[in-house]
């Protein structure tokens, strides 16, 4: 049997071209000798070299990395806790309201989130910088984490926790030794999601960043307004590379782990 | 009574290990356990028996500490356990679903509870090895739960709950998923473990034969209440109600009108049928409507009219169920009532002299039937 008919091959090609053509062009032009972005003048890696000399870009990259790691980690802790409470606590007064409030930022326009955070920071007199971006990113990415984690917790067999308690664990130990290792793939996915959201974010960061700290997306955006330079292309290519490698390895790991654990759990539940 | 017989429930001096005092459990408006009082003694193998939804699991969960009683108290060794959280109770539960930790090996599953007690490493290793040996799982120590068979998983769950040598072990339908042979083997294994370790077992089961085999006492439940708590043989021979008689084993229930006569009763149950005679120890409250419960194996079947039988009725064989070692004859009396009689097949089937539509006599002694009021 032929797996690819002529039609299938064409639609696949078109689809992928549509998705990846812009990025491929960007990557190709990052190796352009010429300073003019639209004219090809031979292969060179000089823009990558220049990028390493560019203090502004480097510091923005450093800020972005710090913000992404810190905010996604805090968001994962808080989001997992919120998901656990929502799934485990059963019915308590105001549960619907509480869960609705956790998921609201998911659909809230970013501009509004950014603006309200800005007003808050000004109101409490917090100087805008790395700290405020971290707080802002934690706020909006936490709900993504809690969605991912709670969907895993819903299918988690409660009797495993009861068994842990029965064998002498405190509730926290039961969570740490039994629940957490089993839902770890979902927690890792949540962290990755929060991490990429933070790397990605332009709108909220531009509301909450200050002169002392600029993230890479803001830097790129403002640089492009003065004209696209091959340097920007090189920087973007590096970012694409990091994100690609990171996402592929992490999703492979977490997918394999979650498949295995889920199979184990089902098998252990009963044959 | 023999001095050596294990029967602490008959001993007024004995202190119960577990005591339910007027325990009620409500889920919303629904009453799962209804003002239940019960005493279970140390070293007992106590079986909870009853139809689905009668509250067996709920009782276990209250003992383990996963559900607080809505009213009443539960005492363990004389102490109210209400304020004790599950992780502080000297009670271990083997879950109906096994609830093995999927991310840990068999070895780590069994060691889990011991590690919580902060035992030294060597002590843990020795204890786990002992448990693996007891449940014949040595070969599977390094495997994960999904890499072993259902019966092996069940034994891991058992080993894990036994490892801490709890005072009290709760087994919620522990053998439900096993085939008959493996089930019987495991039943004997359980009794053996119980004998060796001296642990008190409370076991939930749907299978009355299992309860009869393993239990020191059986509690028959219905809708959150205890109907009868007694030794297996007494439950079988002297059920206190039609419900218990019907629930445990096969039984003929004959409804009739009882009149006191000498040291027993004479029961009129149908026009044109002789009165049935039954002696009973516990007596009825006066005379009136009653039920006779007679086990099929206590009814003799013959083609000739039996001589000097206390009770004898005539009928026609309606059906025969051949069960290998036993045959059950369904005999229709003149009034249409079907009575079951069971005989052991000591002879080859070809020699059987009774067959369909034969006219036969059924007879039983005056102590065979239990007279019941409800
Ligand atoms: N958490 C709960 N909320 C509401 N009702 C419950 C809850 N747990 C149990 N029940 C009800 O209490 C009754 C007793 O339940 P339980 O699980 O003790 O039954 P069971 O005797 O173990 O039955 P089975 O033999 O089918 O396991 C059932 O009618 C059940 O629907
Ligand atoms: Mg049950």
Could you describe the 3D structure shown?
- The complex is a heterodimer of chains A (271) and B (374).
- Chain A is globular and about 70 Å long.
- By secondary structure, chain A is mainly alpha-helical.
- Chain A has a domain at 54-227: MetI-like (MetI-like fold), CATH 1.10.3720.
- Chain A is built from 11 helices and no strands.
- The longest helix of chain A has 40 residues, at 230-269.
- Helices cover 79% and strands 0% of the residues of chain A.
- The mean pLDDT of chain A is 85.
- Chain B has 374 residues and is of the alpha+beta class.
- Chain B has 2 domains: 9-242, Rossmann fold, CATH 3.40.50; 250-372, Beta Barrel (OB fold (Dihydrolipoamide Acetyltransferase, E2P)), CATH 2.40.50.
- Chain B is built from 8 helices and 20 strands.
- Chain B has helices spanning 56-64, 106-116, 121-134, 150-163, 180-197, 208-214, 232-237, 242-247, and strands at residues 18-27, 30-40, 45-49, 71-76, 79-80, 91-94, 168-172, 200-205, 217-222, 225-230, 252-261, 264-268, 276-279, 288-294, 300-302, 311-322, 326-333, 338-344, 359-364, 370-372.
- In chain B, β11 (252-261) and β12 (264-268) form a beta hairpin.
- In chain B, α3 packs across α4.
- Chain B is elongated, with a radius of gyration of 25 Å.
- The two termini of chain B are 30 Å apart.
- The mean pLDDT of chain B is 88.
- Chain A binds chain B through residues 157, 159-160, 162-171, 173, 177-178, 181-182, 261, 263-271, and chain B through 64-66, 85-88, 91-93, 95, 97-103, 112-113, 116-117, 144-146, 149-150, 153, 160-161, 164, 177.
- Bound molecules: adenosine-5'-triphosphate and magnesium ion (MG).
């Amino acid at each position: 049997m032929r797996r690819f008919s002529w039609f299938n091959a064409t639609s696949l090609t078109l689809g992928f071209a549509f998705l990846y053509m812009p990025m491929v062009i960007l990557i190709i032009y990052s190796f352009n000798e010429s300073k003019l972005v639209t004219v090809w003048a031979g292969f060179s890696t000089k823009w990558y070299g220049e990028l390493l000399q560019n203090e502004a870009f480097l510091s923005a990259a450093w800020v972005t990395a710090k913000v992404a790691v810190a905010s996604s980690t805090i968001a994962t802790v808080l989001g997992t806790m919120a998901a656990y409470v929502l799934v485990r606590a059963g019915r308590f007064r105001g549960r619907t309201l509480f869960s609705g409030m956790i998921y609201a930022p998911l659909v809230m326009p970013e501009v509004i989130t950014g603006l309200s955070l800005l007003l808050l920071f000004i109101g409490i007199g917090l100087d805008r910088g790395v700290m405020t971006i971290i707080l802002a990113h934690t706020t909006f990415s936490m709900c993504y984490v809690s969605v991912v984690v709670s969907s895993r917790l819903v299918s988690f067999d409660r009797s495993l926790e009861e068994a842990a308690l029965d064998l002498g664990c405190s509730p926290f130990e039961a969570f740490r030794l039994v629940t957490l290792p089993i839902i770890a793939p979902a927690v890792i996915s949540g962290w990755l999601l929060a991490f990429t959201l933070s790397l990605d974010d332009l709108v909220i960061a531009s509301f909450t960043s200050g002169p002392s700290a600029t993230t890479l997306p803001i830097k790129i955006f403002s640089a492009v307004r003065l004209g696209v330079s091959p340097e920007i292309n090189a920087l973007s290519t590096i970012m694409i590379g990091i994100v690609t490698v990171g996402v592929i390895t992490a999703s492979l790991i977490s997918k394999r782990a979650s498949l295995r654990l889920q199979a184990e759990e089902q098998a252990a539940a009963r044959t | 009574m023999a001095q050596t017989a294990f029967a602490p429930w008959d001993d007024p001096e004995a202190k119960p290990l577990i005591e339910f005092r007027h325990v009620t459990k409500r889920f919303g408006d629904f009453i799962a356990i209804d003002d239940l009082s019960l005493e279970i003694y140390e070293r007992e193998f106590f079986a909870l028996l009853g139809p689905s939804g009668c509250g067996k699991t709920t009782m276990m969960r209250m003992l383990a500490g996963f559900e607080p009683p809505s009213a009443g108290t539960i005492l363990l060794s004389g102490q109210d356990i209400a304020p004790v959280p599950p992780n502080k109770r000297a009670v271990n539960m083997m879950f109906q679903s096994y609830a093995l930790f999927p991310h840990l090996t068999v070895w780590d599953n069994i060691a889990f509870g011991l590690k919580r007690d902060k035992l030294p490493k060597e002590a843990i290793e020795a204890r786990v090895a002992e448990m693996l040996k007891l449940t014949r799982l040595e070969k599977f120590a390094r495997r994960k739960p999904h890499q072993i068979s259902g019966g092996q998983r069940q034994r891991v769950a058992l080993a894990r709950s036994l490892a801490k040598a709890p005072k009290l072990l709760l087994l919620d339908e522990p053998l439900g998923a096993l085939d008959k042979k493996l089930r019987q083997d495991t039943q004997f294994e359980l009794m053996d473990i119980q004998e060796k370790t001296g642990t008190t077992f409370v076991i939930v089961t749907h299978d009355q034969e299992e309860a009869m085999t393993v239990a020191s006492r059986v509690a028959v439940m219905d809708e959150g209440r205890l109907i009868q708590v007694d030794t297996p043989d007494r439950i079988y021979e002297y059920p206190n109600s039609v419900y218990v008689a019907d629930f445990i084993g096969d039984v003929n229930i004959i409804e009739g009108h009882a009149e006191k006569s000498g040291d027993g009763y004479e029961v009129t149950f149908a026009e044109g049928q002789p009165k049935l005679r039954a002696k009973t120890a516990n007596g009825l409250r006066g005379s009136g409507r009653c039920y006779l419960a007679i086990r099929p194996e206590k009814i003799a079947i013959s083609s000739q009219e039996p001589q000097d039988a206390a009770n004898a009725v005539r009928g026609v064989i309606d059906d025969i169920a051949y069960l290998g070692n036993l045959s059950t004859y369904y005999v229709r009396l003149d009034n249409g009532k079907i009575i079951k009689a069971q005989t052991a097949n000591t002879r080859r089937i070809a020699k059987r002299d009774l067959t369909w539509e034969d006219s036969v006599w059924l007879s039983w002694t005056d102590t065979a039937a239990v007279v019941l009021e409800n």
